[in-house]
Each structure stands twice: as C-alpha cells, then as structure tokens.
Write a structure and sequence with these properties.
heterodimer, A: 305 residues, mainly alpha, MetI-like fold, B: Rossmann fold, four-stranded antiparallel sheet, 12 strands
Chain lengths: 305, 330
C-alpha cells in the first residue's frame, strides 16, 4: 500500500508539472495578449505594463521565473484584474464553488443511489420505470432549464429562497439542487446498471441459498460490486463539480470559480489562466487518487496489483 | 426409515415470450434419512429447477410453481412464505453449486461468507462464529485455516473454493444437502477429492444428500437411489445397483451406452441422436419418441403421457411400450 501511494504521488507531481508546462506555452501561442484591448493603449503605458509583468523577457526566462514562484507557493498577480493576486482570487471564489459542489454531490448521491438500487431490485415494475423515466428527463434537461425552473418555483412562486446571489446562508441550496438533480440522474442510471449486473451473479444465488434475507442480500452482497462503476465515474466528475460551473454561476449570479475560467481566457490573463488550470489539475489528481483508494477498498482483487 | 424430503407431483413452468415452458412436469421423489439420491439428466432436463424450486430460488416471474407438494419436517416447502423459507435455507437444507469460481462473493472475505449462516440462523456472535468457521475449514481439509479465513476467493483454487462451499453448506449441520453438479466444473483429479469429501462428511454427519449430475460414473459411485429425468419428467427411478444392472427405459439405456469407459476401444462412441425436445412445444405422448431408435419409435405412445409404473419392487419406469425393454409388466 505504501509503495502504491508513493508511486501515485510521483505520478501526480509529474502530471501537474506537465500541465503547468503545456499550459504556460499554449496560452502564449494564442493571438492577442493581456493588454490588447479595443481601446488603443498609449505605447508608454503598455511598455510599463509589459515590463512590470516580465513579458519582455525571453520565454525560457519567463518560464523558469514563473516556475520558481509557483514552487514557493506564489501564484503571481493577475494580469487583467489590476492589483489582484491570483491566490486571493482563488481564495475568495474556490470555497463557494466547493460548498456548492459538495452539496450538489450530496444531493446527487442521496437521490441517485437509492433510486438506482430500488430500480434494479424491482426491475420492470413501476418502481423501476418511474424513477428511471425521471432520471432520463434529468439527463436531458440542461442546467439552464432546470435552474430557472427551480428559481421560478422556490424563488418567485413560494418565495422560500433567494433568486440569485451569494448573500444569505441558504443561497447554496438552489444551485446545489440544480446540479445535484442532474448528476443524481446519471448516478441513478449507473447504479441501476451496475446493480443489475451484480444481482445476476452466481454468488447472489449462493447468498439467497444461505437464507440471507432479501434486503441483506442487496446491501451486504450486491452493493459493493454494483457501486464500482459509480465510483469510477464520480472520481473525475468530482473535480469538475467542485471547481465550479460557469453556467450555474451565471444563472444564480455566484462569485464562484467557474466564471474565472471563462473570463481569464477572454482577457488573455496569462497568469490567472495558468493558476486556474494548475489548480484544476491538482484537484483532479487528488480526487483520482482518492477514487483509486476507494476502489481498492471496495474490490479486493485490485489491492494486489 | 422416514423420509426427510417427500416431493409429490411437482410442477414448475416458466412463462416466457415464446410460450409456457414446462420445466418440471409432475416429478415425485423421496429422500430417506442418510440417503444419497441422484437426479440424472441432460442439460435442460429440469433437474436443477426441481431443486431450486423446493427452496424458492427460481426467479419468479417468469418461474412459477404450478402444483405439487414437498414435505420436509412436517411442512410443505412449496407453500411456505418467503420468510419461513429463509429460515430453512442454509440452516436445515443447504446447497452447493456447480461453479465454485463464481459462487463465492469476490468482494467479501472467505471467513465472512463462511460464518454468515451461523450468524443468521444460530444467532452466534462474531468471535464464536469465526472460531467455528476455522474448525469448518479444517474439517474440509483446508490447511492454515485461520489465515485462510482472512483471504478473498481469488486467492483460492477451484477445488479449494468448492471445499469452502461445502464447509459453508454444512456449517449449520443441515438435515439435507442439495449438491447441484458440484464436480462438473473441476479438474478430474480434484473431482475425485471433492466426491470423497462429500461422501466422508455425509457418513460422519448422517445427512441426506440430493446429488444432481449428468455424469453417470459419479452417480454410480455416490448414489443409493437414482432418478433419471428427461424433458422435465421422471423417466426412471430405482436403487442404483438395480438401475445399473437392469436399466429399463430406453433413455437410461441410451445414456449408459454413451459412457466412454464402457465402450470397446476403437469403436466410435455412441451418442443419442437428435436433441432434447423444446420444452414449450413438447411432443404429445412419450417425450422420448423423436429420439428413440428408429425401429421401436413406432411403438411409443402418441395419445397419452406414459404413467410411471413399478416394473419391479422399488424400480419405477415410464410405461411406454416403445421405450421399456422386455414389456411393462414383468
């Protein structure tokens, strides 16, 4: 287990380093630069800015100085938000995305897992068709339809929650439910598929022949194997959920991280793009590592290899 | 001797899109205490379904028990509610299955699976059950039982897994063991070991065994009474020695002719022509008629199902003039 962990740690560092390098050079290949704007900028102002951010230096020098500050934990100042440091931008926005993401995941699991399990156990009955039809609708409905629908009901009609914004302690609920419903629909269908496959296995028949009661067969013998596909899906999906969704943030007017992903690219904000992409890569790597550990815990066959 | 299990006129069918499949058609069998009763037949002859339906293990729907009774310890298994059946399964009647590679749960420790019947039926606490589990593994000849308890099925060979299955089935000391082709998926050398183990434990514990197989050599070795099934029906039933000495039904005789060991070297191996009939469209009358050797086929019953009659004491055969050698009454 220790070797496995160290191995994965080395791999993770290599991945983040590669992402850093590729992103650093690729953003400089795009047209335009952080200070290109529709309004012509006086040449001397531009010169001062370019010098301040070190963009006048040769590319290899820029690369190594940037890497040097990243290694010290300094993510450099933003090039489009004057006077803002990338670390501060992330510190302000990431917790919001994280809260909403984790809550959405909770909603998704709380809805998807029981629905999928019941549908698989009660295959081809109304307890299967009903939830699975709803899940299909959930998958087909885009967030920008589901979100406003929920806003109309809970925000305007019943006036229970704020329509948008990030002011009150309850403002995470609507965005989290919107995201959670859609991910929950995926999870429900995946759980059903995984459980159906496992419930047909010989060892389930063995458990029944031993006199294990019906629900105990499902929870004690079938669940572990049935959840494997869901866990494999959730790992990578979790990185996307917790680093914020641009659409959700636009609909609910949230100061989350997702908006920065989009606006930093439009602004050609070299340093903010780099900081965000490296953060995303780091989150993804951590989450994948946790997923692997969870899968190894669920499946003893994986533990050996 | 009193019968441990007395099945009468069991009828099971599966309602599928292609019509009603009569998997088991009026099958009766008796298992006396300490006896080994064999059920022999080809794949799809209904031998497994017969046993699964006794324990409520056939998927329903599409499976449905249409009639009959199965008396076990004063109760009719076929009429017991699921909750009561659960108390019988794995406690008073246990099963072992054909493929030990897939019959153990790959996600759970051997020990956890092994002692589950004790925890469920005897209400034992974890430590006591675990201790008895180690003893049970020793009993079936698994070395280093205590460490083996903590391992997972993929760390066991096929033969060892079948030993675990046997230990698990017998851990509650049931009165009846149903063995569904327990040696079919194993290597020949391991087959013999597993057979010896079952025979040995049966003698020591005095349990009755229902042995499902398609291997007549195995039947000859372990069974006291043999029931031959064909197309969901019982075609012949007799004590093993009597059946092997005087097989009466054409199907039994054909099965015996196709044992490779009984054939002279150099002669092509006999195989029964044709295939078993489609169980959703059974031929009228004698179900073996389409495959009967050509010269006697004409004598087979066409208008009615041949009844089982006692051709000699304790020896029953389906009384079809085309199939039964030497006349029905002798």
């Amino acid at each position: 287990m220790l070797r496995f962990t160290l191995n994965r740690l080395a791999q993770s560092i290599a991945v983040v380093f590669l992402v850093f390098t590729i992103t650093f050079f690729m953003i400089r290949l795009t047209d335009g630069d952080p200070f290109a704007s529709p309004k012509a900028m006086p040449p001397d102002v531009r010169k001062v800015l370019v010098e301040r951010y070190g963009l006048d230096k040769p590319l290899p020098v820029q690369y190594f100085t940037t890497m040097g500050s990243y290694l010290k934990g300094d993510l450099l100042p933003s090039m489009s938000y004057q006077g803002m440091w990338n670390t501060k931008i992330i510190k302000d926005a990431f917790p919001i995305s994280l809260i909403i993401g984790v809550a959405a995941l909770g909603v998704a699991l709380a809805l998807g897992l029981p629905a999928g399990i019941i549908a698989a156990v009660k295959k081809n009955t109304w307890l299967d068709f009903g939830p699975m039809s709803l899940a299909l609708i959930g998958i087909c409905l885009p967030t920008f339809v589901m979100g406003p629908l929920l806003i109309m009901l809970f925000g305007l009609k019943w006036r229970l929650l704020n329509v948008a914004g990030w002011f009150e302690k309850t403002d995470w609920i609507l965005p989290a439910v919107t995201m959670g419903l859609i991910y929950g629909a995926y999870i429900a269908r995946m759980t059903r598929g995984g459980m159906l496959e496992v419930l047909n296995q010989d060892y389930i028949r063995t458990a029944r022949a031993k006199g294990v009661p019906g629900w105990k067969v499902v929870m004690g013998h079938a669940l572990r194997g049935g959840l494997l596909p869901v866990v494999a899906f959730l790992g990578p999906a979790l990185a996307g959920i917790t680093t914020g969704s641009f659409i959700i943030e636009k609909i609910f007017n949230l100061p989350g991280l997702g908006q920065h992903f989009v606006s930093s690219v439009f602004n050609r904000d070299y340093s903010l793009i780099l900081a965000l992409v490296v953060l995303y890569a780091a989150v993804l790597v951590v989450v994948n590592f946790l997923t692997d550990i969870l899968i190894a815990w669920l499946n003893p066959k994986v533990r050996l290899s | 001797m009193s019968a441990v299990l007395d099945v009468k006129d069991l009828q099971v069918s599966f309602h599928t899109r292609n019509g009603v499949v009569r998997a088991v058609d009026k099958v009766s069998l008796k298992v006396e205490a300490g006896q080994t009763v064999g059920i022999v037949g080809e794949s799809g002859s209904g031998k497994s379904v017969t046993c699964y339906s006794l324990l409520g293990l056939i998927p329903s729907p599409p499976g449905k028990i249409e009639g009959g009774s199965a008396m076990f310890g004063g109760m009719d298994l076929l009429k017991l509610p699921e909750k009561e059946l659960q108390k019988v399964r794995g406690s008073r009647i246990s099963m072992i299955f054909q493929d030990p590679m897939t019959s153990l749960n790959p996600f759970l420790k051997i020990g956890t699976q092994l002692v589950e019947p004790l925890r469920l039926h005897k209400g034992m606490d974890k430590a006591a059950a675990w201790k008895q589990g180690i003893e049970a593994l020793k009993e079936v000849g698994i070395p280093e039982a205590a460490t083996r308890m903590d391992q997972y099925p993929h760390e066991f060979s096929g033969g060892m897994r079948q030993r675990v299955m046997i230990a698990m089935a017998l851990i509650t000391r049931p009165e009846l063991l149903i063995a569904d082709e327990p040696t079919t998926a194993l290597d020949v050398t391991i087959q013999q070991q597993v057979l010896d183990l079952i025979k040995d434990l049966q003698k020591r514990l005095g349990i009755a065994v229902v042995f499902i197989t398609h291997d007549l050599a195995v039947v000859h070795e372990v069974c006291d009474v043999v029931n031959v099934m064909y197309a969901g029906r019982l075609v012949e039933s007799a004590p093993a020695a009597e059946l092997f000495a005087h097989p009466r039904h054409a199907y039994t005789r054909a099965l015996m002719r196709s044992i490779p060991a009984l054939q002279k070297k150099g002669e092509p191996l006999y195989t029964i022509p044709g295939l078993p009939p489609d169980l959703s469209h059974l031929p009228a009358g004698c179900s073996f008629r389409p495959r009967q050797t050509p010269d006697r086929q004409l004598l087979c019953l066409r208008d009615q199902r041949p009844p089982l009659v006692e051709v000699s004491p304790g020896h029953w055969a389906q009384a079809c003039p085309g199939c039964v050698e030497g006349g029905i009454l002798s």
